[in-house]
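Page 42, continued from yesterday. The earlier attempt failed because a stray header line got pasted into the input along with the sequence. Redoing it now with the clean sequence only.
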Amino acid sequence: VGTYPYNLGTLSAGDNYNLQLISTTPFLITPAPLRIIADDKQKIFGAANPPLTFTYDGLVNGDTQLAVEPTLSTEATISSPVGTYDITVTGGSDPNYSISRVEGTLTIGQKTVTITASNQSKVYGEANPVLTFSYNGLLDGDTQIQIEPTISTEATISSPVGTYDITLTGGSDPNYDFTPVNGTLSITPATLSIIADDKSKVYGEANPAL
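This time it went through. Structure tokens are written below.
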């Protein structure tokens, strides 16, 4: 980019004219339009930000970059909740280009968490034990999801021996996509003693009822 004088070279008008060279407006080269576009990025909640990159749209003459390249930034951090965040382009300059900047978007998605109902057991005729569950995949510092699921089983105090599902229902958290895993309540036989009653009789009598 710049102004360049015209070179008229060596001219001749012949014997009948006196040639006068008059300067004109110099030849002008103006900046080419160039867009710097921040690339869209994605990550999972709790993960470090991915490398931020950009793309040039409009480089010419074999150019691969600007004289001074731009910088990229976002307000999202490793602890930012699920959502979308701007990727901002700042700076960047080159005398040969007229530059415009296009922001990108960093999308933070939910982290997958498994919630597993703990297996339990009881003896036939006993009350159900306390039903519990555990998390696998929560970030450090998180001990539970925002709205915890409910845990239940169809087994009751009078349910016969067998196995019964322990199920998880409900629960939600904007930062986590959780998968519930059912557990099992095993009801085992109760211990039963059958005791023969002691009896007596007089010699010669029939046996009493046993």
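Notes: The mean pLDDT is 94.
Reminder to self: strip header lines before submitting.
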